[in-house]
Design brief:
It is a single chain. This protein is α+β, with helices and mostly antiparallel strands. It has a domain of 42 residues. Helix content is 19%, strand content 25%. The chain is built from two helices and six strands. The protein has a four-stranded antiparallel beta sheet, with helices on one face. A two-stranded antiparallel sheet has the order 4-5. A hairpin with a 6-residue loop joins strand 2 and strand 3. The protein starts with a strand and ends in a 30-residue tail after the last strand.
Length: 106
């Protein structure tokens, strides 16, 4: 089961996150999401636990608990659908418009 963990202390590392969840069972991965520009934690991450019963117990007991001075949010991660880009590469069906097309003023 993939678990979302939010409101993490920005100083928490992946090892500490994994350790926290290992109290409830086997953890196959623990990932803290890092901002690609600053290199700092975004304050949330994901934990993967293969045993659903252990994962549910971890969610139940850790959600709302205070870890490193912050009340964390823990729940089952729901995979979001693939996002469509608003960028229209090569799309000839352009509606609306505006912009600065000179041929509109001839």
């Amino acid at each position: 089961m993939n678990i979302y963990v939010g409101s993490l202390n920005f100083k928490m590392n992946e090892g500490q996150l994994k350790e926290l969840f290992e109290e409830y069972g086997e953890v196959t991965s623990a990932k803290i999401i890092i901002d690609k520009y600053s290199g700092k934690s975004k304050g949330f991450g994901f934990v993967e636990m293969p045993n659903d019963a252990e994962a549910k117990k971890a969610i139940e007991e850790l959600n709302g608990s205070e870890i490193q001075g912050r009340k964390i949010i823990v729940n089952e991660s729901i995979e979001r659908p693939e996002r469509k880009s608003n960028f229209r590469s090569g799309d000839n069906d352009r509606r609306g418009g505006g912009g600065n097309r000179r041929d509109n003023y001839r």
